[in-house]
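Structure in, sequence out. Go:
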């Protein structure tokens, strides 16, 4: 399957093995950004699973409305992240076209810069969704079924990885735009998200580990 065919078809409709094969192939898409988005989608899916197993349990009747709200937000996040798997692939196409412009063309530099700005935006949005996911997982860890706590911890670990990986994908583009106001702003906001939400995800994992070991 060529890169052009992948852009026209749906990466998220591939089987797990087919997606992994495409990711392993010598081609530009899918790449790190798409992998990050998929990891985040899997992480928040685990949150949804924990919520579904919490609903209807008498012991959790007092938080049922909260769980329903979390499930609705988790569904929105998962859908957005799956869309971003696709968008990460399609956002590469303008950049590839820009680099094919002859080097002696005056418009080449501006075309590359504009395409790079576009390539920055998708992984930044992946970060935003992964950060949202971590916040929902925090609440699910507190309120969801104790029997599902390991899945919540796994979800937090996946979303933390998605956040970090997407940050690298932002950075690989912003470093090419030194002094660009958009790139500087995205870097600042991305660093803030990482500093805020990565420790929160790590705290979920530690809390889950302690609960499983009987420390709580």
């Amino acid at each position: 399957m060529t890169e052009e065919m992948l852009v026209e078809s749906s990466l998220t409709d591939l089987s797990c093995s087919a997606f992994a094969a495409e990711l392993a192939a010598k081609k530009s898409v899918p790449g790190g950004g798409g992998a990050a988005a998929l990891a985040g989608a899997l992480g928040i899916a685990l949150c949804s699973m924990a919520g579904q197993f919490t609903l209807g349990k008498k012991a959790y009747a007092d938080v049922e409305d909260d769980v329903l709200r979390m499930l609705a937000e988790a569904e929105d996040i998962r859908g957005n992240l799956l869309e971003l798997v696709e968008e990460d692939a399609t956002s590469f196409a303008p950049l590839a076209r820009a680099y094919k412009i002859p080097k002696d063309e005056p418009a080449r530099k501006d075309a590359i810069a504009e395409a790079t700005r576009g390539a920055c935006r998708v992984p930044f949005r992946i970060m935003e969704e992964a950060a949202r996911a971590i916040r929902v997982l925090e609440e699910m860890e507190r309120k969801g079924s104790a029997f599902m706590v390991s899945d919540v911890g796994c979800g937090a670990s996946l979303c933390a990885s998605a956040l970090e990986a997407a940050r690298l994908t932002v950075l690989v583009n912003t470093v090419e735009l030194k002094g660009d106001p958009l790139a500087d702003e995205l870097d600042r906001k991305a660093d803030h998200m990482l500093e805020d939400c990565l420790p929160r995800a790590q705290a979920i994992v530690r809390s889950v580990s302690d609960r499983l070991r009987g420390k709580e």
